[in-house]
């Protein structure tokens, strides 16, 4: 088995509760694996019930303290954490690649996106405005906004730096405390984000970091009266389960759930640019992105030519260890993903889809998978109905604008959707017609610190990022006085 390149920077893994970093101390652990080789990187301590109770007690005290902080104090912590993240960028990005697999270029961009988000929320903390209502003389009515309370936040593995940043930035800016449970597969990245906040002066109790058996942790935290909000990013199935748990205590929820992004390619698109954008967007994190373009609908007039050019470009993608500066796509993040994707491809092929390129694992070490293009995929194929979360494009054709819209909106998911056209009127029409929380027209970049990130239908509700993400951590109070 090959040695793990770059492992010397990988830290000892710990929990963070009430201002203290805690190791396993003889308790349960989880083996964190290196996606490029499949070898064990480190053992991660898992929280038990007593740890979670301490985290809840600390979060309760932390909220009572932090809600009284000034906007300037919150901003100072967030800008300080952003500065520390940038100073530590090389090490944090390398460790994120070691544990998640994506390219070093991607983890560096992800880190700077997290830092930018902290800077944005530092400024937004000073813009939590209320209003004074018009009343008769002698009366006064105010509308004020206050922090919702302690937040239980659950982040997935696919963006191991930015997802924890999303779960922490807005609540901390709002004056909330947080118990963050990131994914066990990529813990060092979340540790680095929490460490930056702590080192920037965040008081003990405001942010706890726990890892554990997901169902145990979620049930324990969401049953506590301390928690007043649940924030989750992940699959629709798990999101619905957490919403049911949250309902027992009438918790506010923000849910960023699964997607299955359609891409509508009109025959007047910028041909070469569209091929390149879609290829690189699909290669990003080996397709393990909730907004990854997946269902490709190409207009009849260019279908064969477009699929030919796309297949050629996808087949040429350089796949390898994420630390190699010359590669364009790293391995998948864990042992589950290659098998799941292979099963979907096999199902599509059995139903008549053509495998134009890829379709198989690469080698027998690590979790590498060939970038894949499927053509003429029937609607009944699993991959046209279930999110593959892998480096696969499933293509079909359409004739008219209405045909494209019908196919794009066919599924219950509505996170992201894309369209490519050089016709301004078509762009306006398709932007309005696509049922998604985010639409990209002639571009594939969705996330920005100042823009809301959210889905509709079974892709969730509530927003992260932007002023909307901060508003999701605030409650509104009316005060009437005579």
What does this structure look like?
The protein has 482 residues and is an alpha/beta fold. The protein folds into two domains: 7-257 and 459-481, 3-Layer(aba) Sandwich (Aldehyde Dehydrogenase, Chain A, domain 1); 261-449, 3-Layer(aba) Sandwich (Aldehyde Dehydrogenase, Chain A, domain 2). Helix content is 37%, strand content 21%. The protein contains 14 helices and 22 strands. It has helices spanning 49-66, 71-87, 89-100, 104-124, 162-174, 187-199, 214-222, 236-247, 271-283, 303-315, 336-350, 401-408, 424-433, 466-471, and strands spanning 15-17, 20-22, 29-33, 40-45, 131-133, 140-147, 150-154, 178-181, 207-209, 227-233, 252-256, 261-265, 293-299, 354-357, 372-375, 392-398, 413-414, 416-420, 438-441, 456-457, 460-461, 474-481. It has a seven-stranded mixed sheet, sandwiched between helices. Strands 9-8-7-10-11-21 form a six-stranded mixed sheet, with helices on both faces. It has a three-stranded antiparallel sheet with strand order 5-6-22, with no helix packed on it. α1 packs across α7, α2 packs across α6 (187-199) and α3 (89-100) packs antiparallel against α6 (187-199). The radius of gyration is 23 Å and the shape is globular. The N and C termini lie far apart (76 Å).
């Amino acid at each position: 088995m090959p040695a793990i390149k770059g492992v010397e920077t990988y830290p000892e893994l710990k929990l963070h509760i009430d201002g203290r970093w805690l190791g396993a101390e003889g308790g349960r652990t989880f083996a964190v694996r290196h996606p490029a080789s499949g070898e064990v990187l480190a053992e991660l301590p898992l929280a038990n019930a007593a740890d979670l109770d301490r985290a809840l007690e600390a979060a309760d005290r932390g909220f009572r303290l932090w809600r009284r902080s000034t906007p300037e104090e919150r901003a100072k912590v967030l800008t300080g954490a952003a500065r520390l993240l940038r100073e530590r960028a090389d090490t944090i990005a390398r460790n994120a690649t070691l544990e998640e697999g994506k390219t070093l270029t991607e983890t560096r961009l992800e880190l700077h996106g997290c830092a930018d988000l902290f800077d944005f929320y530092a400024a937004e903390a000073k813009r939590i405005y209320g209003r004074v209502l018009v009343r008769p003389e002698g009366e006064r009515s105010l509308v004020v906004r206050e922090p919702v309370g302690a937040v239980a936040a659950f982040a997935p593995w696919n963006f191991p730096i930015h997802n924890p940043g999303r779960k922490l930035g807005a609540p901390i800016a709002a004056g909330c405390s947080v118990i963050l449970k990131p994914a066990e597969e990529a813990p060092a990245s979340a540790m680095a984000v929490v460490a930056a906040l702590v080192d920037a002066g965040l008081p003990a109790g405001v942010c706890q970091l726990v890892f554990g058996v997901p169902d145990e942790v979620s049930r324990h935290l969401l049953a506590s009266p301390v928690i007043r909000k649940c924030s989750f990013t992940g699959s629709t199935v798990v999101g619905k389960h957490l919403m049911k748990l949250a309902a027992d205590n009438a918790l506010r929820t923000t849910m960023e759930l699964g997607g299955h992004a359609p891409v509508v390619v009109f025959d007047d698109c910028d041909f070469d640019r569209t091929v390149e954008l879609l290829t690189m967007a699909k290669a990003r994190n080996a397709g393990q992105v909730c907004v990854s373009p997946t269902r490709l609908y190409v207009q009849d007039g260019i279908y064969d030519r477009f699929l030919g050019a796309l297949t050629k470009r996808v087949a040429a993608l350089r796949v390898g260890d994420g630390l190699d500066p010359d590669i364009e796509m790293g391995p998948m993040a864990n042992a589950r993903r290659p098998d799941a994707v292979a099963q979907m491809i096999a199902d599509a092929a059995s139903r008549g889809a053509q495998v134009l390129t890829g379709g198989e694992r690469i080698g027998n070490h690590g979790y590498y998978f060939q970038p894949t293009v499927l053509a003429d995929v029937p609607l009944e194929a699993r991959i046209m109905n279930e999110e593959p979360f892998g480096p696969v494009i499933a293509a079909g054709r359409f004739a008219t604008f209405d045909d494209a819209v019908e196919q794009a909106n066919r599924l219950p998911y509505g996170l992201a959707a894309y369209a490519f056209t050089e016709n301004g009127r078509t762009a306006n029409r398709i932007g309005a017609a696509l049922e998604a929380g985010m639409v990209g027209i002639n571009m594939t970049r969705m996330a920005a610190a100042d823009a809301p990130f959210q889905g509709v239908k079974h892709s969730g509700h509530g927003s992260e990022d932007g002023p909307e993400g901060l508003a999701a951590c605030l409650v509104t109070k009316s005060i009437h006085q005579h």
